[in-house]
Every structure is written in C-alpha cells, then in structure tokens.
C-alpha cells in the first residue's frame, strides 16, 4: 500500500506514477469518498498514468476539499524490473530461512541421536529449556539426583550434555593425564569482566600454567601465618555471637542468631586475611559492609542463565553491557570487593612495594602480573568463602539437631581437653585431625550438603569416549560435556549405605577389630567423599585452608554454645544453584554449661520437680 497526500503531490505524484507502472490493477481511494479501480495496460506509459491520476485527484479534491490522503492499493502485481528483483529477493530470503530451519532440524536430530544411548528427561535431548528450568528451580541437587536414579549413573540433561554421579568416571575425567578437557561450561565462571581466572580458563595449557604458579601460595608452605589468621578471625566470630546473640533466659534476654550470616562473615574475613593480610571487616561491623552477600543474590539470575547458555558470556564484550558489569570503582557489591582486592594488589607493586609472606606474596614471587592477581584474588574470595561457610553452617545444623551425636562429640573432645591434649582457647589443626569422631562429623556434614553443586562440566575428546553406565558400555561423541552431580554421588546408597540420606557420623568409624570388608567399605566412602573438593588436575587448591577452618570452627562453636533451631519445620531457606544459598537460618544460642553430676543435684536450687500438665484421664 502506498499513501500520499494531495498537498504533497508534485513529488509523490511522480512516485505514484512510478509505482503504478508496475501494476496491472490499482485501486485509488480517498477515505470513503471516492474509490477508483484502474485497469492498466501491462506497461502503461507515464503520460497515460499522469493523466489518469491527475483526473482522479482533481475529482476527489473537488468532492472533499483536497485535504485527504490517497490510498493506492496494489492488487495484482506483474512485470516490471524493480518488482521482479524484489520478488527474487523475497524468495531468496524465504529459501534461506527454510534452509536455516532445515539445517537446524537436521542438526537437532543428529544431536539427539548422538546421545540417544543415554537415558534422560524426554525434552532434554532436544533443547536446553529443561536444563534452564532445572537451574532456575533452586533445587538442582534433587532434580539431577532424580535423573541419575531414574536413568542411570550417567544420563542426559541437555542436547550435548550428560550428568554423572559415578565417582569412577569423575576421577577418570579429572585425572592428570585424562583426554577429557574443561568444557565451555567453565566460561560461565569468569567473574572479572576482562580477565579469565584459574577456574574459568578453558584452554588447558593456560590453566595448567596458572595452576602451577598458584599452587605453592595455596599450599601454605610460604605463608606461615595461616593458622594464626584463622584463629584470630575465629575468636572474633565467637566473641560476636557471645556478645550480641547469646540468649540469657535467666536475665530475661531472648535473642536469635542467623547462622547463615555469621558463618559467611567468618569465612569472608578469614579468606581476606589469609589472601592479603587484611580482613574485610565483616565480623567487626557485624554487617556486610560491601553489600557483597546481597549482590550475590542479585546475580542469581545471571548465574542461572549463564550456567546453561554459556555462549551468552560473550555479550560481556559489548561495551554497553560491559559498562553495566561490576567494576572496581563501584561502591557496593562484587565491584566493591574487586576494588578492595585491587588496592591490596596495588600495594605489592611499584617503588614502595609491600613485601609480605602470605598467599599474595607467594603469587607475586611466582611472577603473576598485577592484572592476573586482581582477577585471581577475586576468584579466591568467591571460591573460598561461600563453600566453607556452607559446610560449616550445615555441619553445625546437623550436629546440633542430633542430641546423641552432639553429646558423643562433646564428651570425646572434653575428655581430650581434660587430658591436656587440646590447646585452648582454640584447638590446633593437627589436634583436630587426631579426633576420629570430630573428623567423622565434618566428613558427614560435607557429604550431606556438598558445598559445590555446579556442573563443572568436562568435555569428551575429539574421537569421543566410551562411558560405562551401570555395567553397560555407551558412546559419547567428541565435544559432549559431562557434568557432575555431586549431591547424587554423595548420597549414593551403594557407597554410603541404605541410610545415605541421614546424618550418621558413625558410618565412618572403624575399630581395631574391623573386618577387611569393613575397612574396604570405609575406604570407598573416603575416596568418594573426598571428591567434594574435586580431583586431580582440577582439584581444589584451598582445601587445606577450608579443612582447617572446619576443624576449628565446628568444635569451638559447639563447646561454647548450645544451638537450637527456631523452627524445626523450616530451619532455613535454601536455593541450590551450583553453590548453596542459605538464608534465615535462625537459631537460639545459649551459653553451653558443662554440667557435672553435682551440678544436676543443685540445679534450680535442688528443685528438679515440674508439675505435669493436666491430662485427659485426670478427674
Ligand atoms: C569446603 C570448602 C570448599 C570446597 C568443598 C571446595 C570445592 C572445590 C571444587 C569442587 C573445585 C573445582 C573442581 C573442578 O573444577 O572440577 C574447587 C576448585 C578450587 N577451589 Fe575450592 N573448595 C572449597 C574451599 C576453597 C577455599 C577456602 C579456597 C581458597 C582458599 C578454594 C580455592 C579453590 C581454587 C583456586 C580452585 C580452582 C582450582 C583449579 O581450577 O585448578 N576453595 N574447589
């Protein structure tokens, strides 16, 4: 349809004439007043059209005063060079669109059949929408485990994506000489807008290079203050709970403590102190001074989408999007943490460079550049704080809600304290490692709630890989990504027993009289639970720091405080999205008194009687 007004007629008149030259039939109308159907020759001359159109216009203007629009509706098209080329263009575009659709369908069918030997959710073979919905559900742990339980230890969760809960396959993919490599999934772990980091490098050589230069720093060999740093922050955390959150019913003081917050504050201050010699100050302020935890919750949507459509991470290169990403000049959130880390890194360079024997110092000694350090310290903070906080709060939750376990643990540790084998005010790391029941409780806490639930997907080599699924050999073509179902692996009854979903540290204990079979069972559990920290060339570099924090903080918290969840029906809110987000984990903390038999006798002034509530059978 062409619209022209009579007022603008000289130019539009000519356009109209040009247009009509390619028409056989045209309807010329002016509102509802006039409507002319023109029957034209196959190639009407300009003179003929000018006269015809001029006559129609004059007549219409006479009728309606000349201020109306003309609508020219082309009903039958034919002939004309320009029109013909337009037609050719349209049909080319249509053919292209059809071609693209056909290619897409062929590719989708090929992709589907490439992994059709593996079971999985029906739609997962065709699109990534099922995976996106699962990621967004906040319970990937349960959904992935359901898939592995239903369709086998390695099953399909996306068009070119499998998931495994098989420890054997996980070890094989992560082993030092494995032909599997990191999959594109890892690109989603790029935190810094410009730089990759040890966790996000997909290029194997770059990853191996940075890992070899960072490992000595993490090993603690060049940082002699790590244990003291952990102790200092632990004492601050215990003092914070004691001074602000302990309830004292005898004085009429009733309070609650959000364990999810204080444990995060503790691990964030530990990791910043260990990493660059200065804690962020979460514990001092009893607050999130950078808005860091809140910003993690805000980034949740991005984490979910990037985890499925990793190619979107390329959008970060677009200047407009880059400008909206966290940057070191931000006042709050991840950007503020980047700024803090950047300042700490800056100190180590230049003429008056600060020299310290800490993790950062070790990295500088290994030749990491200022840019690399800014990116790596940020990674260290995110990788090392939330994971350890999750392990700590969940272990405390399970022990404090299982009275026989808590009593047994406290009795064992108190006996060691009384025998002078445990340092005060904070247990030493090596002492904690000697306490089997404490170790059993920590392993059980990690197993029940593995802190890393992300896919950490590795990719099959070019020629593909044979994968055994519950005794049946299957083939995954090259490029297939195989994600990790850590929850399913840690809750596997075949490894951990029929009660794998229950917190029972006793499953780890061996005695001198244990049979070989028992020893094998516990060995197998140990080999599997240790995978919580990854394995081989991708294994966690901060494992030493994390276990030190847990060895100390679990028992020192329980020795001082009696913890009781405010709600047993819903002790906390959680979202499991690759890492574990727990909020509103309210507990009543009271000072733990160590009662002796004599104390019980004099308790409450010797009065230990309580009148019973009137019962239904009473008169
Ligand atoms: C309970 C606490 C922790 C758990 C369960 C844990 C678990 C893991 C896992 C599963 C991986 C990745 C494996 C993979 O890519 O396949 C990893 C990597 C890593 N973790 Fe941890 N982690 C914890 C604490 C820490 C701490 C405290 C730090 C820092 C001090 C840290 C630093 C790292 C680093 C740097 C890597 C990357 C290693 C590499 O790519 O070569 N982690 N961790």
From TrEMBL:
Its cofactor is heme. One of its GO terms (molecular function) is iron ion binding. Keywords: Heme, Iron, Membrane, Metal-binding, Transmembrane, Transmembrane helix. Heme binds at residue 540. It holds the Pfam family p450. The chain crosses the membrane at residues 87-106, 290-309. CDD domains: CYP57A1-like. Gene3D superfamilies: Cytochrome P450. SUPFAM superfamilies: Cytochrome P450. InterPro entries: Cyt_P450, Cyt_P450_E_grp-I, Cyt_P450_sf, Cytochrome_P450_monoxygenase. This is Uu.00g140720.m01.CDS01. It comes from Anthostomella pinea. The lineage of its organism: Eukaryota, Fungi, Dikarya, Ascomycota, Pezizomycotina.
């Amino acid at each position: 349809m062409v619209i022209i007004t009579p007022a603008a007629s000289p130019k539009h008149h000519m356009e109209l004439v040009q247009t009509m030259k390619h028409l056989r039939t045209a309807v010329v109308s002016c509102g509802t007043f006039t409507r002319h159907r023109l029957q034209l020759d196959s190639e009407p001359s300009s003179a003929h059209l000018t006269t015809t159109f001029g006559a129609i216009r004059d007549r219409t203007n006479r009728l309606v005063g000349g201020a109306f629009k003309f609508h020219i509706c082309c009903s039958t098209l034919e002939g004309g060079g320009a029109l013909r080329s337009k037609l050719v263009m349209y049909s080319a575009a249509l053919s292209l669109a059809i071609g693209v659709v056909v290619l897409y369908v062929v590719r989708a069918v090929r992709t589907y059949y490439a992994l059709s030997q593996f079971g999985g959710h029906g739609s997962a073979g065709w699109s990534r929408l099922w995976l996106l919905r699962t990621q967004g559900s906040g319970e990937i742990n349960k959904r992935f485990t359901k898939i592995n339980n239903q369709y086998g230890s390695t099953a399909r969760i996306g068009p070119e994506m499998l998931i495994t809960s098989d420890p054997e396959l996980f070890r094989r993919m992560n082993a030092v000489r494995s032909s599997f490599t990191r999959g594109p999934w890892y690109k989603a772990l790029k935190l810094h807008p410009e730089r990759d980091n040890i966790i996000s490098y997909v290029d194997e050589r770059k990853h191996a290079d940075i890992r070899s230069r960072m490992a000595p720093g993490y090993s603690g060999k060049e940082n002699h203050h790590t244990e003291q740093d952990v102790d200092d922050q632990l004492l601050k955390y215990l003092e914070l709970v004691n001074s602000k959150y302990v309830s004292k019913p005898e004085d009429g003081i009733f309070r609650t403590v959000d364990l999810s917050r204080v444990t995060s504050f503790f691990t964030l201050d530990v990791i910043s102190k260990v990493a660059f010699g200065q804690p962020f100050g979460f514990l001092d302020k009893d607050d999130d001074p950078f808005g860091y935890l809140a910003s993690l919750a805000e980034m949740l949507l991005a984490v979910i989408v990037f985890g499925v459509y990793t190619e979107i991470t390329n959008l970060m290169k677009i200047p407009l999007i880059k400008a909206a990403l966290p940057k070191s000049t931000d006042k709050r959130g991840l950007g503020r943490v980047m700024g803090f880390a950047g300042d700490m890194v800056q100190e180590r360079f230049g003429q008056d460079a600060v020299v310290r024997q800490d993790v950062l110092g070790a990295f500088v000694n290994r030749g990491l550049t200022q840019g690399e350090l800014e990116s790596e310290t940020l990674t260290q903070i995110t990788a090392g704080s939330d994971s350890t906080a999750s392990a700590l709060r969940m272990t405390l939750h399970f022990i404090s809600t299982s009275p026989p376990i808590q009593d047994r643990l406290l009795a064992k540790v108190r006996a060691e304290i009384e025998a002078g084998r445990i340092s005060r005010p904070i247990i030493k790391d090596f002492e904690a490692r000697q306490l089997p029941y404490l170790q059993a409780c920590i392993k059980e806490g990690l197993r029940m709630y593995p802190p890393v639930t992300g896919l950490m997907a590795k990719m099959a080599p070019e020629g593909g890989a044979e994968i055994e699924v519950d005794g049946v050999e299957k083939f995954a073509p090259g490029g297939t990504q195989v994600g990790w179902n850590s929850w399913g692996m840690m809750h596997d009854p075949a490894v951990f027993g029929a009660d794998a979903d229950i917190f029972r540290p006793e499953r780890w204990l061996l005695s001198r009289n244990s049979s070989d079979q028992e020893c094998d069972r516990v060995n197998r559990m140990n080999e599997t639970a240790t995978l919580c920290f990854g394995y081989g060339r991708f294994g966690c570099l901060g494992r030493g720091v994390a276990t030190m924090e847990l060895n100390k903080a679990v028992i020192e918290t329980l020795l001082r405080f009696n913890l009781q969840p405010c709600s047993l029906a819903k002790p906390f809110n959680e979202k499991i999205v690759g890492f574990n987000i727990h909020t509103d984990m309210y507990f009543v903390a009271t000072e733990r008194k160590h009662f002796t038999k004599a104390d019980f006798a004099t308790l409450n002034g010797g009065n230990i009687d309580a009148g019973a509530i009137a019962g239904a059978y009473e008169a």
